[in-house]
Prior knowledge:
The protein has one helix spanning 2-14; strands at residues 26-31, 41-44, 48-53, 62-67, 79-81, 86-89, 95-105, 114-126. It has one domain: Sandwich (Immunoglobulin-like), CATH 2.60.40.1860. It has 1 helix and 8 strands, in the order H-E-E-E-E-E-E-E-E. By secondary structure, it is mainly β.
Amino acid sequence: MKKQTLLMVLSCLLMATAGCHHKPVKAIVLIPSIESETPSVYAEEGGILEFRMDKGTPENSTFEVQFSQQVCKPTDTLQGTNTQPVTCHVVAKSGDYDVTIAEYIGPTKTSPGHKVPPKEIKAYVRPCKGCQ
């Protein structure tokens, strides 16, 4: 029995790019610093979505993630900063969900802070294949 488990673990390691895993993956969504770009959001049922601001985002910048339906655990905080990401523990079933990301870009030495037009995107939640 131990040899079978070891073989399965080694197979999963070798086939990592083929999606062989036993728990949902963690996806990181990078919110682009260029206002015209929008991120793509793909998650697995039971997985984790992490939203982060781009490293070039000025200090004191904030953002809020809003879903059209319940996607995250009710206890998840969906407000973040340029240094504090938002972590969403996905509780939604497979489907497509509307997401709005509202941002406030903090002031810099050369410009005052400003509110960015909200980014309207889709989040795609899919079943976790091979999860136990």
